[in-house]
Amino acid sequence: MAAERGGCSLESVPLPPEVRESLAELELELSEGDITQKGYEKKRAKLLARYIPLIQGVDPSLQADNRVPGSSQATTAVSKQQKSRSTNSRDERFRSDVHTEAVQAALAKYKERKMPMPSKRRSVLVQSSVETYTPPDNHSAPPDVTTGLVEHLHHERPQVASVRGVPRGYCSSILETADGDCVPVNSRVSSKIQQLLNTLKRPKRPPLKEFFVDDFEELLEVQQPDPNQPKPEGNQTNVLKGEPLGVVTNWPPSLLAALQCWGTTQPKAPCLTALDTTGKAVYTLTYGKLWSRSLKLAYTLLNKLTTKNEPLLKPGDRVALVFPNSDPVMFMVAFYGCLLAKLIPVPIEVPLTRKDAGSQQIGFLLGSCGVTLALTTDACQKGLPKAQTGEVVTFKGWPRLMWFVIDGKHLAKPAKDWQPQLRDANAEIAYIEYKTSKEGSTVGITVSHASMLAHCHALTQACGYSEAETLTNVLDFKRDAGLWHGVLTSVMNRMHVISIPYALMKVNPLSWIQKVCSYKARVAVVKSRDMHWSLLAQRDQRDVSLSSLRMLIVADGANPWSISSCDAFLNVFQSRGLRPEVICPCASSSEALTVAIRRPPELGGPPPGKAVLSMNCLSFGVIRVDTEEKLSVLTVQDVGQIMPGANVCVVKVDGTPYLCKADEVGEICVNSGATGMAYFGLVGITKNVFEAIPVTAAGVPVSDQPFTRTGLLGFVGPDYLVFVVGKLDGLMTVSGRRHNADDVVATALAVEPMKFVYRGRIAVFSVTVLHDDRIVLVAEQRPDASEEDSFQWMSRVLQAIDSIHQVGVYCLALVPANTLPKAPLGGIHISETKQRFLEGTLHPCNVLMCPHTCVTNLPKPRQKQPEVGPASMIVGNLVAGKRIAQASGRDVTQLEDNDQARKFLYLADVLQWRAQTTPDHPLFLLLNSKGTVASTASCIQLHKRAERVAVALMEKGRLNVGDHVALVYPPGVDLIATFYGCLYAGCVPITVRPPHPQNLATTLPTVKMIVEVSKSACILTTQVIMKLLKSKEAAAAVDIKTWPTILDTDDMPKKKLANIFRPTSPDMLAYLDFSVSTTGILAGVKMSHAATSALCRSIKLQCELYPSRQIAICLDPYCGLGFALWCLCSVYSGHQSILVPPLELESNVSLWLSAVSQYKVRVTFCSYSVMEMCTKGLGTQTDILRMKGVNLSCVRTCMVVAEERPRITLTQSFSKLFKDLGLSARAVSTTFGCRVNVAICLQPNRLGKLAEQGTAGPDPTTVYVDMRALRHDRVRLVERGSPHSLPLMESGKILPGVKVIIAHTETKGPLGDSHLGEIWVSSPHNATGYYTVYGEEALHADHFTARLSFGDTQTIWARTGYLGFLRRTELTDASGERHDALYVVGSLDETLELRGMRYHPIDIETSVIRAHKSIAECAVFTWTNLLVVVVELEGSEQEALDLVALVTNVVLEEHYLIVGVVVIVDPGVIPINSRGEKQRMHLRDGFLADQLDPIYVAYNM
Asked: Count of CB atoms within 10 A of residue 1348's CB?
């Protein structure tokens, strides 16, 4: 093969015919998979050894390379006498050998580029043999950090708050990335990404200059015409007139008149011979029988079929003809029977299943034609799918049909006096032929009696048909050339047709040649593939002769591969009597019927023509003859001259049909009496296609007669021969250049004569992504192909298409053998394939996307402008009349509780005061998963337990004032009591989430790290957890010898504390609040006593909390606002807190809502993860809950505690879902806090009239912003529903004592209203700073002590690290002030900087989740400037690869970004913290360290 590929002139070696036959036989064996590649090469070398001694002993790959310089002569040699060469394309695809040589030469020019191969889980390898398995990607992968709690309900994600990175000194082999992250280097993933980056560094197509404005500042690049592109230079063409239709004296006035004549005068003459699958003639229909049976059928249809005593059919009704390809006899009777009855036959394919490709569209056609009756045969009717009743099922999208079987016993003998009326051919519809368009819609083309007759006349004249000739027909007799030659024109001339069924061709591809030989047929009507198939099989027959043929009509002569089939066929069969001039390619279209056909020489046609055209010029629609040495050429043969009686012109493809210039490709248009009339029932597109008026450059119509557009692209060459270079249906316009799908297929097939594609089945089509066509190539791979084979084939195809067509392939997908939807005769159903690709139901087994190479019209990367100074910004805002964006809650110094606030400076004092004044007042109520009370605490109980803890700390723990104590408890009263115990003893508490016993490996290191980083001198915990911390399992995860003192508080001595510690100043440290941010950074913040009491006071005022109140809390109590609400607020305000640990919801989802209803709670708090669990877990159970008496009408506010942009879709679906249980639409609101200040916004705003009247007006707090403006750090408000709009919900009411300002991220100057910047906050309850062990406080000092660079430079602010904006609204709050709404857009740390713009991961993720129903969750991050998208697949693994293209498309369309890597993983892999936030950086580390066990990783090129 290598030798042949490189162009070794086997052709010039005189090989005996038997050797050539044996070679062909070998090729067939290889293509059918009966022999291995190795065996094939061995046998082949043996056969050729005597003739080509050179080839022996040379490494075949070297030969291929050595041959390249000389390949041009080889190529010319080949094209001069094209030898047969067979491939595996046993479908409809043939390579031109010239093309193969060109492709191989093009590939040789490329050095093998190393592209990263996609990695795939073993279970996804489709149908692969055992040897070809690639080993799974984790040879000795470290334990998976991210998939801990697999056995839990709804893929419970491990709520790890584990810490990213490694402390100093822990680093081993670590790579510092561009973002300064530590990443282990030895992973396979990062090496693949490196390969990808190297591939992407190669220069792209030349940059493009011009832009068009995409209704916004982001400019998409538009293709500017290349100044050097070829332009047509010829003269304007004229209308070409065909020879006149000859006048024949005894020409019948209609086709039926001809049938009557032959049926009565020559009843014994054979009309049609049908064969079975063994090739035996089963029945010969004579003209007498055809006439009498058609009459019987016509009579029966008109007189014997009734409904409610009315005849079922009246003349002009449409009738479906449903006949298998193996029964031409019955079809012919049905067709002529309908014509005789003045009914209109609509031939369609036999529907095999309810879900045939395109079957629904056929149903629409039948419905629009008003078909109520289908004719079929007994055998066919028995084979159709049946319903329970025994009737034929109604197929999807089909009208209800009555099925009538036309076998003889069901037909009635016509009455004596009944005679059909035979009128002359007129303009009434004779039959309707269906056609499926590029988009998959099916239309019916109407052909009148007059056209049908004129077409028979024209074909008879062009083909020189004479009476009683024999014709072999291999085509489908229901439509197109098979119908025109084998059913209509044949009857006109009393010819004898031998019909070869498709099933016989599959068994014996030589059958048609044998029949030509045995029946001495004068004419054969075939397609290229029939010639090709016979080449593969011709070794069996020594004695066939084709000398009787005077015409071999090649019906698809317009295809790019027909020329090689014709040449190769002639090469082999010339020695068996085939004369070269007998081969007659023709071109036809469903609309214009036959457009052109090569005449046999005895009819005086010019010699055949051949054009070698530059592929590049063709893509600009220009014809330039090229020398065959060039790689990118298309060789086409002529399809003869236009039909007798026709006028033809070539017009521009788009817009007004101007005549083309002589060297310009255009659409061929025909005006004659023998074309179709219309698309049935579709007036608009009929006018466009069947009534085109071509005009000259000056705009003058060329004729007063309308022309029919044929859908064929071509030109008229020398000798007035017609050349077709493509079809409108297969046209793909990429960046202004036109490519033909068939040409791309031919190139792909030429890549591997190594037999990779199964039966040559390749589909090429284009999809529109980001305002341009993108080419998609889908191929079926052979069952025995290995992963490496397929990947190599894919990379070579990309290179070949790039080299020959100068166009990139956007997506290349391989599917398992035999899985693409089939067209009726075994070809690929292209529109259905495209549909499946776009819906994500193609299920490929390999995918390679190349958006980096193809997408050249992205907007220009944003250039950061030199910053405007902060002073000029303020001036600018003043001039524009915009106020500076700042807002504040109520002023705490003016409030009524000032003296109480002074008393309540220290929480320890408050608890003692409550224990004395209201000892039995219940503060806490903890619920278990059954909803029963697990434990409670009144003021006095809590105080006493705290005292006992303090004693234990001092006596057992021997701790000093100021020592740090880690509290490792499950959510509960113990945690609260030990917290106050620490305050009583003067120690600083740190609450720590306990490790998960089933997942120690992931959760314990975090506990250890917090204990170490916080410098805890002691750990307080329960006995159970203490055992766990010291267990053998724990030792496997951490060094358990280095724990500080561990005390369990389960049974403490009942001792009274001598004296309770009192801080010397309110600025002393009260507690440390540690949490892991979404970026995986562990940060502890210091909270002073002053800040702690200020926080409690602010929340008390905002939420109106008093001892008589009850609130329900379903939050984790370890950090942030969750901790404050759980441990601090009740003690400060005296209200009762009902505590619901979120973990308990895993075993009882309705626990929280039931508790809220049971205790008639007015105010409740939850996290997003709790809300999501309720929405997903209770979606279908609202009725059951209502029956159980759950009623949420008591809830005034339900607040989601969050440190992120409000999740508007989740809160809305929660509200909508539980509206049925009485939840008020306005109850749900969000809060906002962050590390520097855990409570900035809280409580929904009761604003304007809405608050007083309770009217359900639009929510005052939601605005829509333009997502594209956000990328440029701008806020642009738009209408709801406008493209690229993003809804943002305000984050709640700013707390008393809190001031907020929006500052520029870089200049630190104040910004105006509705400008995007960093949210800065000033408040008595700001934290006082970070507490970290690494001494990096200096780095972050300005997080807590920032000052504006201009304006008010005195106030000290804390930087939240979140982007947002303030917007003054028209609404007023209770005090009559205009309300300022704060909108949080997202965390600065999380944002992705790509192409100079700032993206928020959540926006990209939202788009991706919408892309396919099986995407459960998604997370994105960047790695070395590549965008990586991780998608959780909730569905079968065979859907995994469908997602790659859909994800890439949606991110391109909506965000103008190219996805670098798509990773498809199982549900639950994306780690989520206790607040329900995605831990994207953990995920990134897991991905780079190969720990995700992905189903598939696709590296987009």
From this structure: 21
